Amino acid sequence: MNLMILKRFKNEIIVFMAIIFASSAFYFKISSKKFVEEEKSQIVSSINEINQINQLKKLWKNKSTSKKINRLKSIVPKSKVKFFKKSNQKVMVTYQNLSAKELNLIIKYIMNKPFIIKKLKIAKKSKDNYTMELVCRW
């Protein structure tokens, strides 16, 4: 009896199976398209990040950066520069008897240049008298 019912509704079963197959193919197409778009956006963002890193590398490895570090000697009077040592990509500077204005001038200069601050120690000696130790890399 079951076989008779199947033969009777043979066309309807074929149409039903075709609809199921078509809907699963449509779902697969949509999901694979979404996956490809997500991967594409991830690759584009990775490429943008790599380009940004390359631009920062060019800025940080710039030859003129080492020349800009010499300005730390001349930004305040030479009598206030206690110690200045410039090695390969590192500078150590110690200032003494700085006023607040001079201290702000040095800090602003350092912050506007591509230096990596390793050590920054500021000590207040009196009301308007500061000492500063600075170790930077670039």
Can you give a write-up of this model?
The chain is an alpha+beta fold. The chain has two domains: 2-60; 63-137, Endonuclease I-creI, CATH 3.10.28. Helices cover 58% and strands 25% of the residues. It has five helices and four strands, in the order ααααββαββ. It has helices spanning 2-8, 10-60, 63-68, 71-74, 100-111, and strands at 81-86, 90-98, 116-126, 129-137. It has a four-stranded antiparallel sheet, covered by helices on one side. Strand 1 and strand 2 (90-98) form a beta hairpin.
Range of strand content: 25-35%
Number of helices: 5
Instruction: Please bin the fraction of helical residues.
Output: 55-70%
Structural class, from helix and strand content? alpha+beta
Q: How many individual domains?
A: 2
Structure summarized in a few sentences:
The protein is an alpha+beta fold and 138 residues long. The protein contains five helices and four strands, in the order H-H-H-H-E-E-H-E-E.
Summarize the SSE layout with pairings:
Blueprint: H1 2-8, H2 10-60, H3 63-68, H4 71-74, E1 81-86, E2 90-98, H5 100-111, E3 116-126, E4 129-137
Antiparallel strand pairs: 1-2, 2-4, 3-4
Name its key features:
25% strand; 4 strands; four-stranded antiparallel β-sheet; 138 residues; alpha+beta; Endonuclease I-creI
